[in-house]
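Archive maintenance. Older records in this collection stored only the sequence; we are now back-filling the structure field for every entry so that each record is complete. The fields below show one back-filled record exactly as it appears after the update. Entries are processed alphabetically, and UvrD-helicase domain-containing protein is next in the queue.

ARCHIVE ENTRY
Title: UvrD-helicase domain-containing protein
Organism field: Streptomyces decoyicus
Length field: 728
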Amino acid sequence: MAAGSSRGGAAGGSASRRAQEARRQERLLREQWQAARQRAERWEAASEGERRVAAQLLMLAGRGWRLLVDRRWPGTRAANVDMLLIGPGGVFVIDVKNWRAAPETSGGRLRAGGFSRDEHRRKLLAVTKAAESAVASLGMSPVAVRPLLAFAGQRVDAELGRIRLLGEHEIGPALLSERTRLPAGSVRALADHLARVFPEYEDPAAAPAPAATPGAGATPASDVSTSPGATTPSPATAARPPAAGADGLFDLDGLREAALDEARRAPIEQWMTFLDPDQLALVRRNWAGPARISGPAGTGKTVVGLHRAAYLAQRTNGRVLYVTFANNLPRVQSTFLKTMAPAVADRIDFRSLHSWARDYLRGRGVPVRLHKEKAETAFSLAWKHVGRNSCLSEIDPLHPYWQEEINYVIKGRGITSFEEYAVLARRRRRAGLRRPHRQAVWALYEAYEAQRIERDVHDFNDVLSLALAEAAGRTGHSAYTAVVVDEVQDLTLVGVRLLHALVGDSPNGLLLVGDGQQAVYPGGFRLSDAGIDIRGDRGQVLRANYRNGKDIVDTALSVVAEDAFEDLDGLRTPGRRDVDLTYHDGQVQRAVLPTLAAHDAALLAALGALTPQQLAGSAVLCSAKRGIEHYQRLLTRAGLRVCPLEQYDGHPVEAVKLGSYRRAKGLEFKRVYLPQHDADLPQGSPAGGPSTETADERGELARSQLFVAMTRARDVLWLGSIRPPQEK
Ligand SMILES: Nc1ncnc2c1ncn2[C@@H]1O[C@H](COP(=O)(O)OP(=O)(O)OP(=O)(O)O)[C@@H](O)[C@H]1O
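Back-filled structure field:
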């Protein structure tokens, strides 16, 4: 996911240059406004209020927008569409209303003057769907098509689901304030296409065409060929007296500010508007039950997940939960969604699984006493009394492997009896455990639970189990109509069950997005273990990598080439996968130095050569905490600004990002620096450990994490190594 490093305000320039530019903009705006007013005046059949709405929109025509007026709704003979407006801010489907009473929105319905006007809302949404289908053939996501109700003679700025309601003074500034999402070429192509799909409307019963065809300006005459007032159904006929002065210059105030800001707003990223056909098909698909999207790193899985969440929020009045395991990712994803689909952003909750589960339990009055340190103490004591001197030390004498066994295999999979555990297929665990070993693990688990309960605390797994117990049996009663799970391979089985319980098997309810090759936690499970049945077209794979060039993909794949993995569907996949490459830039730089000092100096030299903007698009990633602490000190002492990944929220920040491989999951950066990248790749068994199975498993996990870190890089992947001269 793009880190947005190339964005940011172009605030530079001297004060006098800025003042000069402001004066030039003001002059231009006045001219455009006068011309728009004159053109709108020619629409004789329209009311004064409607003419003022039209003037605001015609003004945009001088600034790269195209207005199509009074078009026929495809597939119908009689129904019309008031206006289609296509411009840098996207595609807007506009219905102009000339109501005496102000619009009211309550309970998701439209009313005015005490009467229901909801048929207007429904019709506008239906036309918007037709426009979405039309632009989909050009690769445009439905999130970029926005329905808008414009009210002549009213002051309004409100939302009704995905529909924006704007008054005659508000509409121009609001549209001008939209972030740029379409370049001029796309505006032209989309407007031409929409003009073909939505042909001009000819209503035999309506008033004749306007007295004069609008003349000069960027908008072709055929784009504004009939009056907006001629066919606009109006529940009330008389508009309020004009609020503007005779020359309409009153309206200029609102436009002035928006126009001045316009130049400073950087365009939003291309993937927020355009998708490839495979991605778009998944966004708009109708699934009869739970669905899954998988695919190698960088294939746009998250991009599809975000568009899908926005699309589902547009289609319903319900809420959508977008969940990941990591804490930092929801902030970044939420920032992206707000940029790409602001109209529905407040109905999509971006949450990390555990923080959501805690809030859910709190909301249902279930006490949660999560205490990481006390739970750690409970395990240490259990290990000391029951584990350390058991047969488990024959397999691995160090406690982390057995703590993982409890966390990911027993509690993570919701196993509550020894009989279940005794015969359990321990997916993605390398050490073979015979019955006495399993008995020893179970004894350790029971000792841990006893110690934990004695301390009256919960661990992270308990939080999910408690939430699952609450949610199970209440399927369909949650606040959510849809749940999108990103990086699903990081979740435990209990976590996936919990999210499934929120929406059950409802159509378009559960979408699981992820890639088993990027699993960075031990253990695993199959979706069938969670009772989730992904069948037929509900399991989809994306294959085109949009992030990494060939060198970076090859380097990353060479790390995991020998590590075949089992994905959530149980399919075994070779480590070296076929990937369709679409991104052709990107290079791998290696720095192999004999000492830590020389290695770190090379890193600083590489970072020191970057411009502030390049630095902002860079990340230094480490496999473990001590590496992060070391490089935090090094970079800060060298005078470089550092932003810990925990604090990064997707907004551009002029600082090098620093964090762990795990924290970098789901993100991407133009430049990725991996100091000492091969230092932690275990070679052989751990010190003192007779088994190679657990060491192999650790090695596999370390390689997966390194693979994830490497595939975060778009343009440069810097790999640092420390090797004495004879090893080079
Ligand atoms: N249709 C597209 N057009 C242009 N760029 C795209 C498109 N789809 C994805 N991208 C780019 O590819 C990058 C990778 O997308 P995304 O993060 O969704 O991939 P992913 O499959 O979730 O990756 P990973 O599994 O490695 O986290 C995005 O940041 C975006 O810049």
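Update note: Confidence is low (pLDDT under 50) at residues 3-12, 204-222, 224-246, 684-691. The chain is about 40% helix and 15% strand.
Entry marked complete.
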